Amino acid sequence: MIVDYLEDSATAENAADICIVGAGAAGIAIARSFIGTSLRVCLLEGGGLTGELRSQALYRGQSVGAVPLDPATSRMRAFGGSCNLWGGGCMPLNPLDLCARDWVAHSGWPITATELEPYYLRALEVCGLPRRQIDGSGNGFDALPGLPPIPFDRDKLNNQIFMRTPLLFGRDYLAEIERAPNVTALLHANLLELNVTPDGRAIQGATIGSLSGKRSVVRARHFVLACGGIENARLLLLSDKVLPGGPGNSHGSVGRYFMDHPSGKLGAVVGGRTDQLARPYDRARARGTATFPEICLSEQAQQAHGLLNGRVHPFVEEGTVPRGLAALRGLRTGRRVAPPDEGSLLEAELCAAMRNSALPESRGATGTTTGLLLQLALGMGDVARALARKRAGKPAVRSSHLVLVGYFEQAPNPESRVRLDHEVDALGQRKICMDWRLNALDRHTYRNAARLFGQELARASGGRFEPEPWVAAGDETPPQVEGTGHHMGTTRMAEDARHGVVDRDCRVHGMDNLHIAGSSVFPTGGWAFPTFTIIALGLRLAERLQALCG
User: Fold this and answer.
1) CA 399, CA 397: separation in Å to the nearest integer?
2) Is 80 in a helix, a strand, or coil?
3) Where are the beta strands (DSSP E) in 241-365?
4) Out of 114, 144, 170, 327, which residue is the most buried by the measure of CB atoms under 10 Å away?
5) Cβ contacts of residue 349 below 8 Å, gap of 6+?
6) Contact status, residue 200 vs residue 242, Cβ threshold 8 Å
7) Which H or E run includes 453?
8) CB 226 within 8 A of CB 538
9) Beta partners for 270?
């Protein structure tokens, strides 16, 4: 059932067995696990069914770290969460990602890849993907991609296989949640505070509010925070009336160890067989397949060179675009209709804000419609040749070179953190302050991995690697990287409360009935897109909650 908390008919008091805060991938996956059971679930969502500028503004904050990160444009406040914008990439973490690595301080999960595997397999079904076995050697899924990937020296690089789904949680699971008699999704219901019992051992209620001024309390046997890698920590910090610093923060870990997947341009491969090298990794050309390879650092390379995990993607930079094709692209761009509503407009703005600045752009001509039509008429031969190239499996325009873009694991660092600012939002809640920091291991990894990626891809294509200036410089030069919206680590998982916020079952240390879902519990992040692991951990937590609720 879907209820809008802004409506007068919405009840002031709500009671459930389980209250889930946040209707993104984690919250929806957990809620779905209880459909058809005797347990009552209340699913709180601060936004509406689509993006709204006023709700999105509640994510505003400031960034004071060495690497800028805008908390308002790197996530989405709406039913379905940031997965309204995701690319659908599904990839399990490698076994090494979960291990304690002696060259990575604060690494190691309290659970193993073997323990996660059955939940990964169930997550495939949630994502609408066919069942595939996970490659036990850390190469992703045991499946064949559309085109055979380029072979590499396994002591340096390897190809790892991920799957991609078109599923959007907010769109594709809305009807199921709406029909569920025992699940109530409450829209525009913002969590203001978790009400801690006087003894500090449990949550007795969740105070919620709307932007219209409405206030009420949700009571439940168990509470789950599923609001993402930034907001989960913020909500704990805001709930500090009984426990200084909020639940789970007796050792000051809440908000620390903030991580993303830093990404940046590493350089270019010039000359050689660039089209041939890039073709197996071009997702746009691989129609009809859900499996794709990515070029990754091998475990041997990580161990030998003391590196974090990472991957590189080769993007084709076009050469000169023929006149007729440029005119056709210009006409297509001019015909694009502006987003018709507030939700579509917000999605377009967030997508533009999150676009990786290192990616090449397709070039087209500009001018009046009449001028472009004339240019197209004179260049129809260019269009015909471009179509012939595409039918032959080649890019429409001959490539100039390959742009190498890296995506990396970040070292867990207690000084990289989110904390509360002094300014408040429209609900009277203190805003977030981002202090995103990279350390020496990050700088060592990104620079040395860039050289390794560049040299090996140049060797494979018969070209030469031209590194970016920051790659060629010394370690004192900051890497030119940016965030990818994969916020992790701020309520990390650890067996011991001195080293984390939740235990191996995602229960907050010291609390009987408070749990956390999402990438905020990741002790480390590997390179893998986090949503797939978020879903797997959510299914694991749902199983635990079913046992606790009897």
Assistant:
1) 6
2) coil
3) 263-270, 291-297, 310-318
4) 327
5) 73
6) yes
7) helix 440-461
8) yes
9) 464
Give CA–CA dist 295/161, Å, rounded.
Answer: 9
Q: What is the 3-state secondary structure (H, E, C) of 401-447?
A: EEEEEEEECCCCCCCCEEEEEEEECCCCCEEEEEECCCCHHHHHHHH
Q: Which residues contact 287 (CB under 8 A, 6 or more apart)?
A: none
Q: Which of 296, 325, 467 is nearest to 395 (CA)?
A: 325
User: 10 Å Cβ neighbour count for 255?
Assistant: 29
For the whole prediction, is pTM greater than 0.85? yes
CB distance 313 to 261 below 8 Å = no
- Quote the crossing angle between the two packed helices 531-549 and 113-126, to the nearest 10°: 100
Q: How far apart are CA 518 and CA 419, in angstroms?
A: 18
DSSP code for 295: E
**Residue closest to 310 by CA, chosen among 100, 104, 56, 31:** 104
**Token pair of 237 as six digits:** 């910090």
Residues pairing with 402 in the sheet: 269, 316
Question: Would you state the torsion angle of the CA atoms of residues 66, 262, 302, 97, taken in this order, to the nearest 10 degrees?
Answer: 110
Tokens representing 154 are: 């396994």
**Contact (Cβ atoms closer than 8 angstroms) between residue 79 and residue 48:** yes
CA dihedral 160, 97, 444, 449 (to 10 degrees): -10
pLDDT in tens, the chain (550 residues): 999 999 877 776 689 999 999 999 999 999 999 999 999 999 999 999 999 999 999 999 999 998 999 999 999 999 999 999 898 999 999 999 999 999 999 999 999 999 999 999 999 999 999 988 888 778 899 888 878 899 999 999 999 999 999 999 999 999 999 999 999 999 999 999 999 999 999 999 999 999 999 999 999 999 999 999 999 999 999 999 999 999 999 999 999 999 999 999 999 999 988 888 888 898 876 555 589 999 999 999 999 999 999 999 999 876 667 776 666 666 666 665 555 677 777 777 778 777 777 777 666 666 666 665 666 666 677 667 767 777 776 776 667 679 999 999 999 999 999 999 999 999 999 999 999 999 999 999 999 999 999 999 999 999 999 999 999 988 778 999 999 999 999 999 999 999 999 999 999 999 999 999 999 999 999 999 999 999 999 999 999 999 999 7
Alpha carbons 169 and 171: distance in angstroms, whole number: 6
The first and second tokens of residue 195, run together, are 């009400």
Please compute, for residue 238, the number of CA atoms within 13 A of its CA located in the half-sphere on the CB side.
Answer: 24
Radius of gyration from C-alpha coordinates of the chain: 24
**What does the chain come to in residues?**
550
* Tokens, residue 533: 């692991």
